[in-house]
Amino acid sequence: MTCKEFLALLDDLIDGTVSPELRTELQAHLGRCGHCEVIYNTTRKTIEIYRSHEIYDLPTGLRERLHSAIMARCKKGC
Amino acid sequence: MSTIQSTAGELEPHPDVALVERVRGGDVSAYDALVRKYERQVFRIAQHITQNREDAEDVTQDAFLKAYEKLDQFQGNSKFYTWLVRIAVNESLMRLRKRRTGRMVSIDEDVETEEGSVPRDLADWAPDPEQNYNQAELAEILRKTIQGLPPGFRIVFVLRDVEGLSTEETAETLGLSVPAVKSRLLRARLQLRERLSRYFRRKKGPKETKLGETGMEK
Fold first, then answer.
1. Cβ contacts (< 8 Å) between A50 and chain B: which residues?
2. How many domains does chain B have?
3. Which of B71, B62, B84 is nearest to B27 (CA)?
4. ipTM, 2 decimals?
């Protein structure tokens, strides 16, 4: 397997949507290619960081604003 | 988010379905529960698309109001969350168009860029690289980095990787084909990785190598 072939399947490997046979091939490539190993690990880390950090705080008072807007709408007829 | 299969093999309804039924029966407090459950996600999506805090607040309100008004149209065979996300995405795009800034943002055109599709920065990252920054610095790095992505890549990454929609749900929500979502997701992930490498690579270590200068196989 070449690096190009590995990269084409990178997402499938990360998302766990490869067959066991293909996974073994991809893991074998990782075992002998330091560059692809870095790309694989750092791409996974990229996703994990974005998943685990709240980068936009919820504005204070938004929930109350939503509640008031829905109640006001409700008065017109729920 | 998904339905849970019981031991009897029957599909149990998602808890949201019960809440939606209560709202339909006139219990507004059940809608408050749905708002509390999904307000963060809706606000984040709106912020990622509009890139403007006030717009994102307005969109969040409009999306929840619209979902409330259209609740009768919600089909129980799709998830309330993905239905709500679709409304939030549409409201966000409408808000952008209303702004008439001249900078049209389209998520359904393919993005003409090869940037990041071939990894160039092959430096390894520090272990737990986020530990090198405080919370505010890290949030700023992550915001700046994702804001630099083309809009069509950014929204695919956000829906798929941050908000947890499946590839199929992301495609349906954005009106894209599954292969288009897959292609954008890969490029979004690689571009973000490349850009984050500037901040997260090991400070001291082996000399950085670039693709093309090394023996990386083509």
1. 142, 146, 157, 161-162, 192
2. 2
3. B71
4. 0.91
